[in-house]
Amino acid sequence: MNLNYSYEDLFQFNKNCSKLTYLKAPSVTFFYTSKNNVDKFMNIFFIDTNFCKIEVKMSKCIGKILIQHVTKNFMIIDKILNYLEKDENELIEIIGESGTGKSYIFNSIHQALKQKNIPFEIYIPFVFKYNQLKEIVKITTGISDEKFDEIISQTSDYDFSNRYDFFYFLTEKLSEFNLFKPKTIIIFECFHLDNYTTDFIQFLVQFSEKFKIKFINFTREETFSFSQKIQLDFPNSGEIRQILAETYPNKKKNYVTESEIISNISSGNYYVIEYILDHFFKGNKTIDLQSYLDKKISFDTISAQRIKELTKSQEELLLTIFVLDTRATNQNLQQILKSKSLEKDLKYLTKNDIIFELENNIYLKKVSPVKTYFFNLSEPIQKKYFKDILKELKDEALMEYCINVKDYTFKKIEPVIQYLKKIQDYYNLRKIYESLLSKAEKPEIKIEILKNLGIANLKLDKAEDASDNFRQALKICISNSFPAEEIVYNLAKSLFSQQSSPFALEIIKKYSPASITKYWKCKITLLKAEILMQTEQYKDAIKNVDEAFQIADQISNLNERSLMKADDKKLKGLIFYFSNELEKAETEFMDAENLYKTSNNLQGLAAIYNNLGGLATFQGEWKNAEALYLQSLDVEKQRYNLEGISICYNNLGSILEDEGHYDKALYYLNEALEIQKLLNNKYEISTFLYNIGITYMDLGEYEKATHALNQALKNAKTFKLYKSEDAALNALGALNFKMGDWTAAIDYYKQAIKKSKDNNFLDGLCQSYNNLGELYEKRGEYNLAYDFYTKCIELLSNISDEFMKAEIHGNMGSVLTRLHKFGEAYKYLVESFDFFKKMNAKVEILEGAQKQAYYFLQTRNIESANYYLDTALKLAEELNDDYQIGKCFYLKTFLERDNTEQALKLLKQAIEKFIKTNNNFDLGMANYEYASLLFENEDWEQALQILNDNKKIIKKFDAIKFLEKNDILIQKISKKYAIELKESKQHESLLNEFYEITQNLNAISDFDVLLETALDN
User: Fold this and answer.
1) Residue 249: exposure state from Cβ atoms within 10 A (0-12, 13-18, ≥19)
2) Residue 439 CB neighbour total at 10 angstroms
3) 923-932 tens-digit pLDDT
4) DSSP secondary structure letter of residue 21
5) How far apart are CA 335 and CA 330, in angstroms?
6) N or C: which end of the chain has fewer CB within 10 A?
7) Rounded to an integer, what distance in angstroms lies between the CA atom of residue 157 and that of residue 71?
8) Structural contact between residues 954 and 780, judged by C-beta atoms closer than 8 angstroms
C-alpha cells in the first residue's frame, strides 16, 4: 500500500523530531533536519511500508541540497532575519551573479517570513518601465493613484534643484498623511529597477528611522551605497564534491574527479550544476559525464535550449508574458492569445521552472535569456507583440511601447516628459531625449532636443556631456541663423562648471548674438561677471555687474526685472566679499534682500541670509550670524532644498562650536550629516564626520572624536576619496597630538603625507607638513619644526589658499623666534598678522597676537608684548575660549616675573583653564613655571612635588627636551635642599613606622595584650 503525504502533513505529524526517524508500518517515514530550520522543498512522492525507506524525485532532492549549500545551512536566512528584527529601517542586498543561488534564498526567506508571521510584500520590477517611483510609493504606503497624482501636481510650485529635493518634498507630504507604516518589502531582480527609483529607495530608508521600513533586494551587483550586503559566490570544486556526496550518499566514492569535471563544465554556476545532476542521473544511479569533458555548459546555453524546445504555442505564451512585463494573469493571457492550450502550456512552463505564479500574477523565472531571445526577433514581430498587448493595457504601457519599438514623436510622449520633469527624473529624460534625437530631422527640433538633453546632463552633474550637447545646438543655430542666446548662456555655464573659465569667456565673446533680448543679455553679462570674479579679476567683474544692472532696468517684465537686479546685487556683494571690502558687500546684500522680497524669490533670499551670516561670522558677530543662518534655514526648508539646509546646519554648527556651545553645535552638525546621507553625497559625508570629530575633540570627548574621525576615514577609503582620507588622517593626528600620544600623531601625519604625495595633492601635503611642524615646535624640537615649515614655504607658490599661506607664515615666524632668529621672524609674523587683521578673522588674530607678544618678550620689548597680550586676552574673552584665555594668562606671567605673587596668581588661573579644557601639555608647561616661581620663593617642597607629578604628564608626550628641563630643575632643587630633603625623608620614614604600629595595635581587642604590645613597641 502506497500513501501520499504533503510536507505540511508530515511536519504536523511529528514536529518535535530532530533526526532521521524510522517508523514501523503502517506509519510514515520522513526526514527532518532541524527544529529551527524546516526544509519545505523536499517533496516526498511515496512511502514503501515494507522496507520503510524514502524515495524522492531526484530534481527536488538536488534542489534541497543546493538550497542548504547556498544558504550555508540557513546561516544567511538567520542573518537576514536578525536584520529584520532590528527596530529601525534596513536596506539589505543579496548580491550575486546569475547562478549563485539568489532564487533559492528568495524562496527560503519567503517561507521563513511566512513561518514567523512577519508581514511582507513582494515586488517584481518591470523590465520596460523606465521609472518605477509610483509603484514603490504605492507598495510602501498603500497610497491611491489619485492621491499620488495630487501630490505630484503640487511640484510646479517649487523650483527643485535635483531629484533629492523632490524626494524630500514627496516623503514629507506622505508623512503628513501618515501613510508610512512598518513594512518589509522584498524586491526580486532589483537590477531591473531604474537608477532614479533605487536612489529613492536609498533616500527613503535614510529619511526617517521611525517608519521601520525594511527592503530586501536581490541583485546581481552592488546597487546601494549604504546597505547591509550579503555577497553570494559560486561554489568551488570542494563544495561541489560535498554536494555530490550528499546527493549520492550510498556511493563509496570521494567524488574528487567528478567535482573537478562539473566545476570545469559549469564554472560553479548552481543553475548549471542542478541541470547537470538532474539530466545525467541515470537509472543505474551513476553520473555519466565522460562525453562532456571538453564542453562548457552555461546558463545562457541551457536557457536558449529550453526556449528552443518549446512548441509554437508555448513560445508565444512565454513571449507574451515577457512583453506584458509583470502584468500577466490567466485572464489577460486568455484575452490576448485566445489559446485552447493555455492551461496546458502554463503547466509545462511552470513544471520546467521557466515561469512561476505569485499572488495571481505570472512571472518569468529568468528574464534575461527571454529578453535576449525577444530582441533577436525581427522588428515586425516585436511590434506585433507590443501592439497586441497595448489593445488590453491601453495607456498604461504607452511609454514602454513607444521607447522600445521606437514608434513615437515628441508630441506623443509629451505627457510622460512633463511627468518626469515634475519628479526630477533626468536619468530617464536623458534616455528619451537621446532616442528622440536619433529620429529628429528638422533643425529647430534638433536644437530643442539638444538643449533639453544638455539641461538634463547638467542636472545629473554631467557637465562635459552637457557641453557637447550645447556645442552641437550652437552649430545648428549658426548654420541656420537661429537665435542662439539661450544656447550660448548654457554652453558657457557648463564650461564654467568644468573650471574652463577661458573657454566660457571666449564662447560669450565670440557667439553672443548682436540682436538679443534684454533678459538674456543681462543673464549672459552676469555670468561673465561671475566667471571674472572666480578668476579674481574683480575690477572687470564689477564693470560687467554694473552693465548688467543697467540692462536689467530695461527689462519690461516686472518680475524678471526685479529678479535680475536682485541677482546683480547679490553677485556684486560676493565680489566685494572676495576682494575683502566687507562693508560694501553687506550693503549690496541688503539691497539684494529687498529685491528678492519684491519678487518673492525664496532661492535668492536663502542665499542672501546665508551670505550675510557668513559676513557676521567672519567678523565674530556670533549672535547675529546665528540669527541670519536660522533665517536662511527656514527659507531653505520652505523650498525643500536639502543642500541649502545642510549648509545652514553646518554653518550653525561651526559658529556654535566657536562660541563654545558644543552640544548645540553637535546637534546641527549631525543634522547636516543626516542630510548628506539623504543626498548620497559620499564626499560631504566624510567632511561632516570630520567636522563632528573635530568638535568632539574640542569638547575633550576623545573617544567620540576617535569614532567619528575613524568613520570619516573609513568612508573616504571605501569610496576612494583621497582628499577626504588625507583630511581624516590629519585630524586623527591632531587628535592624538591633543590626547598626548604624539607617536601615533606623527604616524597619522606621515600616512597623510604619503597619501598626498601619491595623489599629488599639494594642499594636503602642505597641511601635513605644517601639522608636523606645530607638533615638533610644541615639543621643543625647534630645528625639526623649522625643517617642516620650510617644506611648507617651498610649496606655497603652487597653493592658492591664502588663509593657509598666512597660517604657515605665522608658524614660521613663531619657530624662528624660538630659534632666536629675530630678524627673519618678524617679517613672517607681521605678514601673517596683517592678513588676518585685514580679513577680521578673530581666532587667527588672537593666535597671531600671542605670537607677536612672545616675540617681543624674547626681544625685551615689554611695552609691545603687553599690548599684544592685552589684545589677545580681549579677543579670547570675547570668543569665550577658555584655552586661549589660559594661554594669555600663561604668557602674562613672563611680564610679571618681578612680582612673584601676581605671577603665581596668573599661573594658577592658566592651570585651571588648561585642566578644564584637557590641554595637558600646556598644563605641564604652566606647572613647570609655577614650580620655578615657588623655588625662587623658597617653597621648595611644593615645587618638588609639582615637578615630580609633572614628569608623568610630560612622559606621555615623548617631549624629551622638556622632560630634561623638568629633571634639571628637580636636581637643582634636590641639590640645594639636600639636607632638608634628607631630614624630610627620615621624618617621613618615622611617620610610616608609627602608622604601621598604630594599625597593628588597632587590630588587638584584648586590653591587657594591647598594653603589653604597646609597651614592647
Assistant:
1) exposed
2) 13
3) 999 999 999 9
4) B
5) 9
6) N
7) 50
8) no
Q: Find residue 364's DSSP bridge partners.
A: 355
pLDDT in the model for residue 140? 94
Contact (Cβ atoms closer than 8 angstroms) between residue 605 and residue 597: yes
0.85 exceeded by pTM: no
User: Is 392 in a helix, a strand, or coil?
Assistant: helix
Complete DSSP assignment for 204-264: HHHH-GGG-EEEEEEESS---SSSEEEE-----HHHHHHHHHHHSTT-----HHHHHHHHH
Residue 860 burial (CB count, 10 A): 8
Q: Name residues whose C-beta falls within 8 Å of residue 129's C-beta, 6 or more positions apart in sequence.
A: 135, 194, 325, 399, 400
Give the three cell numbers for residue 712.
570619516
Q: How confident is the model at residue 1002 (pLDDT cuts 50, 70, 90)?
A: low
Strands 53-56, 44-48: pairing kind: antiparallel
The pLDDT score that the predictor gives to residue 43 is 32
C-alpha 569/C-alpha 585 separation (Å) is 9
Q: Give the chain's end-to-end CA distance (angstroms, integer).
A: 103
Q: How many other C-beta atoms are found inside a 10 Å radius of the C-beta of residue 449?
A: 23
Residue 382 CB-density burial (10 A; 0-12 exposed, 13-18 middle, 19+ buried)? middle
C-alpha cell read off for 1017: 613597641
Packed helices 882-892 and 842-858: angle between N→C axes, nearest 10 degrees = 10
Question: Residue type at 851?
Answer: K
CA 542, CA 584: separation in Å to the nearest integer? 12
Contact 370, 322 (CB under 8 A): yes
> Residue 272 region, left (φ>0) first, then alpha (ψ -120 to 50), else beta?
alpha
Q: How far is CA 848 from the centre of its chain?
A: 37
- What residues does 216 pair with on adjacent strands? 92, 186
**Which residues on adjacent β-strands are paired with residue 55?**
46
> Coil, strand or helix: which one is 992?
helix
On whether the CB atoms of residues 323 and 333 are closer than 8 A, the answer is no
DSSP assignment of 112-166 equals: HHHHTT---EEE---SS-S--HHHHHHHHH---HHHHHHHHHGGGG---SSHHHH
Amino acid letter, 30: F
| CB distance 19 to 96 below 8 Å | no
Q: Report which DSSP code applies to 512.
A: S
The candidate with the shortest Cα–Cα distance to 349, out of 325, 319, 389, is 319
The pLDDT tens digits for 237-295 are: 888 888 888 887 765 677 888 888 888 888 888 888 888 887 765 444 555 566 565 66
Grid coordinates representing 788 are 617642516
- Who's near 164: CB < 8 A, 6+ residues apart? 199, 203, 642, 678, 679, 680
Confidence at residue 521, expressed as pLDDT on a 0 to 100 scale: 95
Residue 363, strand partner residues: 356
Distance CA 873, CA 911 (A): 16
CB 139 within 8 A of CB 121: yes
CA distance 11 to 632: 64
The helix or strand, by DSSP H or E, that contains position 343, with its residue range, turns out to be helix 342-351
CA Rg, the chain, in Å? 38
- Give CA–CA dist 71/48, Å, rounded: 31
Rounded to an integer, what distance in angstroms lies between the CA atom of residue 968 and that of residue 975? 10
Q: How many CB atoms lie within 10 A of CB 826?
A: 17
Residue 316 CB-half CA count within 13 A = 16
Which grid coordinates belong to 193?
Answer: 529597477
Question: Which pLDDT tens digit goes with each residue over 762-819?
Answer: 999 999 999 999 999 988 899 999 999 999 999 998 888 888 999 999 999 999 999 9
Beta bridge partners of 3: 47
Helix-strand-coil split of the chain, %, nearest 5: 70, 5, 25
Residue 478: how many other CB atoms lie within 10 Å: 13
